[in-house]
Automatic annotation (TrEMBL):
MF annotations from Gene Ontology: acyltransferase activity, transferring groups other than amino-acyl groups
Pfam families the record matches: Acetyltransf_3 (PF13302)
Alphabetical keyword list: Transferase
Organism domain of life: Bacteria
Organism for this UniProt entry: Sphingomonas horti
Ranges of residues in domain N-acetyltransferase: 14-177
Record-given protein name: GNAT family N-acetyltransferase
InterPro entries recorded: Acyl_CoA_acyltransferase, GNAT_dom, N-acetyltransferase
Length: 177
């Protein structure tokens, strides 16, 4: 039976927690930030679509027993973004679509601090322990070099390129160590 809600995970500097209703405004702020959306199609995401994103985040846990976490700084309690693993069904081929997809997106205040790597390390440890996945995948805009470096630090390696919503992306995979 799937887990109904994300478990809380603490790292040295971060708290990964379940999304909740009052995250809606922060998710709008995240997905309307020009520095964030630059690598995700370039256009701000409408508030309605951000609300649907929040519902999708919660639903992943109820349906699949895994999903994304809201990420907060431990010191301030400030929301800085979302990380985790999900089932994207993106139509990028069997090699990509058959594995859980890793994703991370942080507000600019969280960039350059190693937060994405720290949070994703915790998420991957949890996922590999709970689900015993042999591999996970991610896709990244080839111009998003900081995110590619994060993926590489997490153990992801490029295996190809794919097109998603008219944009060429780097496809990466991580096999369980």
């Amino acid at each position: 039976m799937p887990i109904r809600s994300a478990p809380e995970i603490r790292t040295e500097r971060l708290r990964l927690r379940p999304h909740r209703r009052d995250d809606a405004a922060d998710i709008v702020k995240l997905w309307q930030d020009p520095a964030v959306v630059h690598h995700f199609g370039g256009q701000p995401v409408a508030a309605e679509d951000c609300w649907n994103r929040l519902l999708r985040y919660v639903g992943h846990w109820a349906v699949n027993g895994y999903g994304l976490w809201a990420v907060e700084e431990l010191e301030t309690g400030r929301f800085i973004g979302d990380v985790g693993l999900f089932e994207g069904r993106r139509g990028l081929g069997e090699r990509f679509d058959s594995a859980p997809e890793a994703g991370w997106v942080l507000l600019p205040a969280g960039h350059g601090k190693g937060y994405a790597r720290e949070a994703m390390n915790a998420a991957l440890r949890w996922g590999e322990s709970e689900h015993r996945w042999p591999r996970t995948v991610c896709m990244i805009d080839p111009e998003n070099l900081p995110s590619i470096r994060t993926a590489q630090a997490l153990g992801y390696a490029e295996y190809g390129r794919g097109s998603y919503r008219g944009k060429e992306l780097v496809l990466l995979e991580r096999t369980k160590p």
